[in-house]
Amino acid sequence: MLRARDALPMRWGCPGSITLPRCTPSWDTTLECGVVSRWPIVADEKLMLPHIGGLRHAQRTATAATVLVGTVKVRVYSAHLGTPSDIRPSKRRDQADMILADAAGYGLVIVAGDMNSHGIGKEFVANGFVWPTEHNGFTTAFFNWDHVFLKGFTTPARNQRFTGIVRDTLGTRRPRPPFGPWLSSLELGHPRRPNRISGRRRADDAPIFRPSRPITVPSMSSQRRIAASLIETHPAVRKVIPYDKRGSDHGWAGLRNLARRLQTERYERVYLPHRSLRTATLGVLAGIPTRIGFSGAWSFLYTEARPKPALGHESDRLLALADKPPGVYPPQLRPTPADEQAAATLIDGAFVALAPGSIWGSKRWPYYGELARQLADHTPLVVVGGQDDVGLGEEIRRAAEGGEGRRRVVNACGKLTLRQSAALIGKALLLVTNDSAPLHLATAMGTPIVALFGPTVTEFGFGPLRPGDVAIGIDELPCRPCSSHGPPQCPWDITAACVSSLLGP
Q1: Which terminus, N or C, of the chain has the lesser number of Cβ atoms within 10 Å?
Q2: Is the pLDDT of residue 22 over 50?
Q3: What is the per-residue burial (b if ≥16 Cβ within 10 Å, else e) of 479-499?
Q4: Which pTM was predicted?
């Protein structure tokens, strides 16, 4: 208890205990149910809570302390009610009623501690308490059992977190760090005299808790590491937390590690667009109190499930998760000046970009070389793509170069990072692309698009978004679309009709 008081630091403290038949509590060994305060503790006592536990045969106690804040007395209780394995819920309510009976004679009351129940909060609410930790995150692996209840205090808006549960990392208790309730700076007001702590006046008699510092609402994104750089420079993103589910974060251990990282950030809300068990479980393990996701098989793990629109662009369908209308937040990327400089070293001036690659073989239009030969008579060209597209880019460059009057053709495949590629595409007059990632980079950078759709269709929600952009496909084929992504090879061996005849020579 002394270590806990000094570590916080606090000036006053009184110990608590769980009374055991053959154990004499002492100041050094009874951190359970103790009270520490930066203001003087003018009185304290132990409340012997009813019922002997059936498992450990222990009787629980609660510590009651009267704290003098200026000239105002606040009654504070620290409690650890019986565990579910020790007593029945009705007996746990009896223990809470003992604390409520003692608190009835005080105007300003704080009750905090391990209640070993979430529903017990209704007992305090029925007796005139407010319950600020009702929607806080989990304080154990799967439950929200540590709580704070207040009587006689007015509270800020719910989204301003001024109470909570924190894990002790200062080594004040062994064998493992406990969770403990916390309250931010206490400010007490009076209608006819200045606030004795803050110096402000208030128009009512009710004291108030205020946050000791502004609340940051973070944005969380779990993306593969290769894509994390695309969003980390966006002004709306505070932090990107990469999650490599097929690499270093593989399996249950990786999911638990990520959940622990998220727990330390104390996020209040998470949007879960992926309708997967992994994503839904992550929100639960991270103890995030508000979890919003699309309706599906794992909706029971959300606090709110919303239907996903069947029509429209995917970016607009995702906005529905946040209850926003289509188009209110168009996709944007923000390359850095260094990214812009890296792109500028490859080509100056106006040019047209070609993106011939795709990880799905049936999506690759085979006539980029011919298109490049025709365009090179009129404008410089840049072929964009990843490391796997270097050979394809070189074929197109050789096909287009040569001949009188031909313009410069640059093979940029494999030479830039993803964000630098976005910067390069952002400089282009036009992008001609398959149904692949460069299409979406161009959308976010505002570059005009001509998109060639073979086995897939724009109705899937991943086509060009802006008016004026063009998507071309052969709608008359009865086998189209053949899959959500497009297979590596055409299953019907009619790729010539699906892709090759698309604007072919």
Answers
A1: C
A2: no
A3: ebbbeebbeeebeeeebebbb
A4: 0.55
